Amino acid sequence: MNTSFFGELLQSISERGRALLDRARDRRGVAGARSESLAELCEELLSTRGEASGVALARDILTNYAELTTGPRIAFFEALASRFGPDQERLAAAIAVWQAKRSDKTAAEVQAAAEPRRQELLRRLNLAPNGTAALVRMREQLLDTLDRRDDLRAVDGDFVHLFSSWFNRGFLVIRRIDWSTPAIVLEKIIRYEAVHKIRGWDDLRWRIDPPDRRCYAFFHPALIDDPLIFVEVALTREIATAIAPILTVERELLPPDKATTAVFYSISNCQRGLAGVSFGHFLIKQVVEEISHEHPKLSKFVTLSPAPNFAEWLARERANENSAVLSAGDRAALANLDVHGWWQTPATRDPVREPLLRAAAWYFLRARSGRGTPVDSVARFHLGNGARLEQIDWLADGSEKAIGQSHGLMVNYLYDPDDIEKNHEAYAEGRTIAASNAVTRLLRPVSLELVPIAG
After folding, report:
1. Which pTM does this prediction carry?
2. Are residues 299 and 310 in the same domain?
3. Quick one: 246 and 330 in the same domain?
4. CATH number of the domain to which 198 belongs
5. Is 14 left (phi over 0), alpha (psi -120 to 50) or beta?
6. Per-residue pLDDT tens digits for 184-213
C-alpha cells in the first residue's frame, strides 16, 4: 500500500510538473518536447531545479526513449557516452586545487567532479513514475549492444554502479511463492524459469504447492510484482543425484518432518538488466535460515546444479593432442560422445562413465580461466558463496539441453552453515576450492599444477 501511494504521489507531481514545464517552454518559444532530441531533454533535466518539473521531464524522456527503435536507441547510448561523462573543466580545476591544498574537502571535490554526469542523469530519471523498471529495461537493451560496442561500456559501468546501491540487500524483501501468490507473479515465475522449464500451470503447482516443495523469491519495492531472483527447493530424505525424480509428478509426497535434506535445484535470475548485480548468495543463505527455522530436522542443504560450460571445455581438451587431462584410453572411450544418442545404449554409455567423471573432476578442481577462477560459471557462483563441491552426478539430466551443455552431468554443492564463511574466505583469498573426498578421489594421479584454460 505504501509503495502504491508513493507511486501515485509521483504521478501527481509529474502531472503538475508537466503543466509547469509546458508553460516554461512556451515562454521560451519552444514548441514542445517532441521537436527536441533526447540528449537535449537530458541536458534540460540536469539543469532543472524544480522537483515537479524535473519529475515530468524525466517521465517525458523515458516515454520517448521507450518509443525508439534499435538505431536511434544506440544513438542515444552514444550520446550518453560522449556528452555525459565527467565535466573535464571542473575535474581539472578540482585536481589543481587538491594538488595545491590536500585535504578531505578538496579530495571530496575531486571525487564529485570525477563522477560522470550520466550518474546524476540516471538518478533524476529514476524519479519518474516507474522509473526504476524503465531503467532496468534500458540497461537490458544496452547489454544487447556491448558485444560490438566497447565504447559503450563506460555507460554500462554507471548503470551497474547505481543499481548496486539501489538493489542493495537492505532494500530486498524475501517472499515465499506458493499457490496463493497473485497470478501476476506466478506467471512471471513460469516465464523466468531459466534452468528447468515450467510447462504450464499444472507443472508450476506441482513445484510450489506440495508440502515437500518450496519456492522463495527476492522482491524490490520499486518492482512490486516482479521477482528479481527465485530459488526452487525440494525437501528429500537424501542428497538428490538426478533431476527427473524431483520434477516428475509420479512421485510419493514426503512429509516435511521426514526430510533431512533441502535440495536447491533451480536458481533463476529474472531481470537481465540487473546482470552483474549479485544477490543470489543472499537469497540462498536467507532461505537456509528460513527453512531451518521451519524444519529444524533438516541437516543438509545442497544444490543440484547444472554444469553449463563442461561439454565445451571437454571438446577443447579432446582436440588438444598435448592435453594433460586425457590419456589415450580416455580419448578412445570418449569418442563414444560423438555417437548420436550415446547415453541411451549401454554399449556406448558404459565406457564413457569413468573417463568422463575423471575429466569432470579435473574440470571443477583444476581447470582455471586466465583470471585464475574456475572455468564453470555455476561453480564460481556457489564456491564464491562458501559452498563445498560435494558430488559429481553421472547422467543426472537427460534433457537435450543438458546433454549438449554437460553430457548430462550435474553437481551437488553443499552449504554447511558451520563452514560457509571459512570456505568463502579461502576461495576469496586464494581461489581455494573446498571439495569432498568423493570428488578429489576421481582425479587421475597426475601433476596437480593449475592449467590455465581460456574462458
Report:
1. 0.83
2. no
3. no
4. 3.40.630.180
5. alpha
6. 999 999 999 989 999 999 999 999 999 999
